[in-house]
Design brief:
By secondary structure, this protein is of the alpha/beta class. It is globular and about 60 Å long. It has helices at residues 20-23, 38-50, 79-82, 92-97, 102-120, 158-161, 170-176, 221-233, 271-279, 321-324, 374-378, 387-393, 403-406, 414-425, and strands spanning 10-16, 59-64, 88-89, 126-128, 137-141, 164-167, 189-193, 198-205, 208-215, 239-243, 285-290, 295-302, 308-315, 340-347, 354-361, 366-367, 395-399.
């Protein structure tokens, strides 16, 4: 991104996918890792802050897609599920890769995440949503035991892994809930539910007001009802939804087989059910963003009103070229992330409104399209694709058909836009 003055019709939404590997206590010098991976995350946040609208740039909003930290407090069943008779069982996946680490979570991982968002605080409106790793308990269900054998972190299926469930967001709401300094009394933070596990923000992007909804993973009917009440309070405002799980690497709206939270809680909405119950029903929902699954994918579908809904998976957490290039003998579980951000670059030009998706790495200080080695480094994420197809995932443009007629009532004049930008800087 060029750090330059912004055009009236142009703005960017910065998307921060799963950050758990940056802050994992295993990936810091104190644990014998070659460098502090958390510093890559902090560099990403400094980039967003420098390029915020209030600082003369084009980033009007930032959204994080969950799995903010890596480890949990416990691998035992949480109290709410225990009261219903559910039992946990030892899981090789959890024991080998994300064994509970309460002390490290509280003293290393969460403070690193807090530092990251303190960099953004006061610079622009932003959202965070909880992922499965952000729950205090992540446990294996005794009724679906794992099978023996090697575990592939990129292909987690019920047959080999069993059923993983999660519960309790006390740490998350204590640090990133509605009553924390990040969001309390902020004029752009307009609503919340369940202490901020679900939240809504309003911001000005170019010529229009935008609404953002951040939803917890696999929301139940009460969350959907709350989201609909927010949409009713801001009718006709183009809306972006962030949620941890929605689109998978195959472009399907499906839950991960081993982590389908509706298996034990049938009232929870899997991605396909959420599409039917909320996303496709409300014409003002323009886009849905998610992480969770490794890699990048997108699809565009008509809603029940015949208008476009853009769905974007972005998750760079498995990438580790930053490690390979300097420390080829070092080992890492999964990956680091290599400083990659998803940038949604809107241009609401009156004649041809459009949206361009690009990936930018604050580690390499380059867009994906500028790196000749990009497909060689990361093409394994989609081995079924050609190099050109893979590169196109992180540099693609969409026409926003009928945007101005669809969202005419959300248009702002120059004076209103200036007032909103001042509120965003306050």
């Amino acid at each position: 991104m060029q750090e330059s003055a912004r055009s009236h019709s142009r703005f960017t939404v910065a998307v921060v996918p799963d950050t758990q590997n940056y802050v994992s206590y295993r990936n810091q010098r104190a644990a014998g890792f070659p460098f502090n991976a958390r510093e890559l995350l902090w560099d990403m946040m400094h980039f967003i802050a420098r390029n915020a609208v209030g600082n003369g740039g084009e980033i009007a909003f930032a959204t994080a897609l969950g799995d903010m930290w890596q480890h949990q407090m416990s691998a035992d069943v949480d109290a709410a599920h225990a009261r219903r008779g559910h039992r946990s069982i030892v899981s090789p996946l959890l024991a080998d890769h994300v064994a509970p680490a309460p002390e490290q979570v509280l003293n290393i991982e969460i403070p690193a995440v807090r530092t990251a968002y303190e960099i953004l605080a006061g610079q622009l409106p932003f959202s965070v949503v909880p992922g499965n790793h952000d729950h205090d308990h992540m446990w294996a269900d005794a009724d679906y035991p794992p099978q023996p054998g090697a575990i592939d972190l990129h292909r987690l299926d019920l047959a080999s892994v069993g059923s993983i469930h999660c519960g309790s967001l006390e740490n998350w709401t204590r640090n990133f809930g509605a009553q924390t300094p990040f969001f309390k009394n902020q004029p752009w933070y307009v609503s919340s539910f369940r202490q901020g596990a679900n939240s809504a923000q309003i911001f000005t992007g170019g010529t229009h007001r935008f609404l953002h909804l951040g939803l917890e993973m696999s929301p139940d009917g009460e969350v959907v009802d709350w989201a609909e009440s927010v949409l009713q309070a801001f009718p006709g405002v183009p809306t972006i939804v962030s949620i941890h799980e929605f689109l998978n690497p195959r472009g399907e709206r499906q839950a991960a087989e081993c982590l389908d939270l509706s298996r034990l809680d049938p009232e929870r909405h899997t991605p396909d059910r959420l599409w039917d119950s909320l996303i496709s029903r409300h014409d003002q929902i323009l886009a849905v963003l998610n992480g969770h699954f490794h890699g990048v994918r997108h699809r565009v579908d008509p809603n029940q009103h015949g208008n476009q809904v853009f769905q974007f998976l972005s998750n760079y957490q498995g990438r580790k070229q930053s490690l390979r290039g300097t420390f080829p003998d070092a080992t890492v579980i999964d990956g680091i992330g290599d400083g990659w951000l998803r940038l949604m670059e809107f241009d609401l030009d009156a004649q041809r409104p459009r949206l361009r998706l690009r990936a930018y790495s604050t580690y390499f200080k380059a867009y994906a399209s500028d790196l000749p080695q990009y497909a060689a480094w990361y093409g394994h994420e989609h081995p079924e694709m050609s190099e050109a197809e893979f590169r196109a995932l992180d540099d693609v443009e969409f026409d926003l058909v009928d945007f101005h007629t669809r969202f005419e009532r959300a248009r702002v004049d120059g004076e209103t836009a200036n007032e909103t930008q001042m509120a965003q800087r306050a």
